[in-house]
Structures are given as structure tokens and as C-alpha cells.
């Protein structure tokens, strides 16, 4: 794997002038600049494809907007970081405008789904972690269920119960026994596991604290420990294209749940390397696509619902879901950098599990 070298090379070849950030630690400044540039490119992809963006895409960019606001306000306190703060703030403003406009298209393409999941793209729903923790390896399952009995339909139905957005008029946070059992089922993996975590993460965002939700933190610890284990396994087997989506989703969700060990520098390097540099999206790597490029028509209008997890491949291989998870993962990296001022060295420590020093100064 040549990725770490590629990244160092990138840092070394960056033009010095625009990067002569007034930051005590220039490597941090360079990394923040790289992430911001990637996010600016992804945002112009969102702008150009706004009518095609599904709800998943909107959720990822909504999380990014919250992360950028957090970054903006952390950096605003430091006069030296004003330029970076301004840049994050401008990007967040642009996203706010685009997300407002995207609701119009979502209303056209899938009004039912929009009504059910609208809280997740509303201002104030997503909250940044208030404290950081790390995953606990002793919670990793000894074996996994082979059969995935977890359908996206049932997972969605339980999320709707949680949000209280169904047509039955039920209050948020009230759950059927079916959903309680499904969302706490042990030894799940893949998207089933990430949706179990998403469920408890949304319960936290929604403010559910009673009944099963008294144990929310226990389940969040359990699920993220296993998502970390799966990400490490995915990394060990090379992070091929189909595995990238879940890998980034795990970083997005567990990062927002406050697990800083998902923000590894080498994972950041990998994600940055997956972006389509021209279009700004994430998706199927173009150079490995041996078929002549074919446009797979959008399935909106054919299916009643546009699945959140559905991959919307256009001729350039861009995927809505991939792009959404990538920007929210990258936004988390930026936020963790901003949340740990570099002179404390804590960000360097957390981002660098592979032991390479991040700081140029001791
Ligand atoms: C990890 O989890 C185990 C089992 O629940 C627990 O005994 C241990 O204290 C935890 N370790 C940390 C560092 O939280």
C-alpha cells in the first residue's frame, strides 16, 4: 500500500504560499486545507446534481453542515485561524442554501419518505459529540450471525417509530417489541450493525432517554466496538470499492457518536484518495470500469420509494450514498482536528495510531 507515502508526497508538493497558514503546526494546517478542498469539490458535485440527490445524500451533507459550523466556531476564537474559520463558514452557508433547495426535489421524488425522515435533515437534529471516547475491544463479538435477517424495510419502520413520523400519530421514542428486539439483536454485521448504531444515535439526537434508551450508551459502545473491528478487517483485506461505502458509513456514525479512534490518519488518506478529482463525488473508480460507460437510469418514479442505500450510478460512477458517507466522515476528521488545538498534541496522538509523528515541532 503506497497510500501513506502518497499522502506525504502530497503534503510536500503543496504550494507553500497558500498553505503558509498562521497555524503553530503547519502539518495540521495542511491537513485541514486538504480536507476543506475535498469538501468544497464534493459540495460543487452536490450543487450540480441537486435534483438527483436522494435523502441519503442530503443527510450526509446535513451532517457535514453541522460539523463545519462546529469547526467554524472553534477556529473563530483564534485570530490566527480566522481564514480557515471563514472558509468553513462559507462552505456551511452554501450547504445550508443547497439543502433547503434539495427539499423541493425530495418532495417531488418521494414525499412519503421525505415526511418520515425529514427530522434527519432538519436544522438542530444532529449534534456534535460533547466528549470523545475510544472503542473497547473486549466488546467485540466472538462470532457473527451468517444470515442477515435484517431488512431495510424493518429497519426503516423502526426508525420511523423512533422519530414519531409515521401516520399512526405515535409519539417519538415509543417502540414496538419487534423493534426493540431487532435493534438490540446481538452479533449482526455489515449494514445491519451500522443501522443498529444509527438507531441509538438518532435516539440520542431525538432526546429519547426512557425504557430501552436508558441503555443507549451500552449499545452504542457495543456496536461501535464491532464496527471498528469490521473496519479493521476491511482495511486488512484491501478496502476494495464495494467495501468502501460501509467503511465510511462506520466512520461517519461512530465518529458522530464520539469515538475518536475512527479518525485514523491512514483512513483519512484512503478516503481522500477515493474522491473523483474532477467531479468531486465518491463512487465506483472510473479506471477500473472496463465496461463502456453506461448510464443507469435513476429509479425515481419506478419505485415508490427511493431507498436510502440505493446506489445512484450515473455515467461517471458517482454514488449518492458513497458521497454522503464520505463527506460526513471527512467533516468528522476536520472537526476532531479543530476540537483538539494542535498545541496540545492530542489530535496528533489520536490521528496517528500508526506511530508516525504528525507534528513538525516536538
Ligand atoms: C471494556 O469492556 C469490558 C467489558 O464490558 C469492561 O469490563 C472494561 O472495563 C471496559 N474497558 C474500558 C476501558 O472501558
Would you give an account of this structure?
The protein is mainly alpha-helical and 362 residues long. It folds into 2 domains: 1-11 and 26-126 and 261-362, no CATH class; 134-257, no CATH class. Helix content is 56%, strand content 0%. The chain has 14 helices and no strands. It has helices at residues 3-13, 16-19, 26-48, 55-76, 82-109, 111-117, 152-163, 177-184, 190-206, 216-236, 241-256, 265-273, 320-339, 346-351. Helix 1 crosses helix 12 (265-273), helix 4 (55-76) runs parallel beside helix 13 (320-339) and helix 7 (152-163) packs parallel to helix 9. The longest helix has 28 residues, at 82-109. The chain is globular and about 50 Å long. The two termini are 28 Å apart. Bound molecules: 2-acetamido-2-deoxy-beta-D-glucopyranose. The site of 2-acetamido-2-deoxy-beta-D-glucopyranose (NAG) has 3 residues, from loops.
Amino acid at each position: 500500500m503506497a497510500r501513506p507515502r502518497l499522502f506525504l508526497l502530497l503534503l510536500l508538493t503543496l504550494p507553500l504560499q497558500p498553505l503558509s497558514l498562521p497555524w503553530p503546526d503547519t502539518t495540521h494546517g495542511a491537513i485541514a486545507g486538504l480536507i476543506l478542498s475535498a469538501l468544497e469539490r464534493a459540495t460543487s458535485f452536490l450543487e450540480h446534481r441537486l435534483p438527483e440527490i436522494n435523502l441519503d445524500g442530503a443527510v450526509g451533507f446535513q451532517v457535514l453542515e453541522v460539523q463545519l459550523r462546529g469547526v467554524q466556531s472553534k477556529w473563530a476564537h483564534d485570530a490566527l485561524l480566522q481564514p480557515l474559520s471563514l472558509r468553513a463558514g462559507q462552505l456551511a452557508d452554501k450547504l445550508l442554501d443547497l439543502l433547503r433547495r434539495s427539499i423541493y426535489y425530495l418532495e417531488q421524488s418521494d414525499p412519503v419518505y421525505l415526511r418520515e425522515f425529514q427530522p434527519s435533515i432538519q436544522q438542530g437534529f444532529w449534534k456534535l459529540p460533547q466528549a470523545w471516547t475510544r472503542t473497547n475491544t473486549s466488546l467485540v463479538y466472538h462470532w457473527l450471525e451468517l444470515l442477515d435477517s435484517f431488512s431495510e424495510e424493518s429497519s426503516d419502520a423502526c426508525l420511523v417509530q423512533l422519530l414519531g413520523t409515521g401516520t399512526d400519530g405515535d409519539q417519538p421514542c415509543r417502540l414496538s417489541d419487534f423493534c426493540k428486539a431487532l435493534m438490540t439483536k446481538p452479533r449482526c454485521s455489515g449494514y445491519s450493525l451500522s443501522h443498529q448504531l444509527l438507531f441509538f444515535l438518532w435516539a440520542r439526537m431525538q432526546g429519547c432517554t426512557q425504557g430501552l434508551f436508558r441503555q443507549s450508551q451500552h449499545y452504542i459502545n457495543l456496536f461501535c466496538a464491532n464496527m471498528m473491528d469490521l473496519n479493521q478487517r476491511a482495511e486488512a483485506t484491501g478496502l476494495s470499492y464495494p467495501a468502501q461505502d460501509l467503511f465510511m458509513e462506520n466512520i461517519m456514525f461512530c465518529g458522530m457518536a464520539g469515538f475518536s479512534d475512527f479518525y485514523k490518519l491512514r483512513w483519512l488518506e484512503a478516503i481522500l484518495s477515493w474522491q473523483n478529482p474532477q467531479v468531486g463525488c465518491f463512487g465506483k473508480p472510473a479506471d477500473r470500469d472496463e465496461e463502456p460507460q453506461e448510464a443507469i437510469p435513476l429509479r425515481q418514479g419506478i419505485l415508490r420509494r427511493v431507498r436510502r442505500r440505493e446506489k445512484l450510478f450515473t455515467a461517471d460512477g458517482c454514488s449518492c450514498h458513497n458521497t454522503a458517507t464520505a463527506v460526513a466522515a471527512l467533516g468528522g476528521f476536520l472537526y476532531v482536528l479543530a476540537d483538539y488545538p494542535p498545541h496540545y498534541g492530542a489530535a496528533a496522538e489520536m490521528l496517528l495510531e500508526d506511530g508516525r509523528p504528525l507534528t513538525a515541532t516536538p
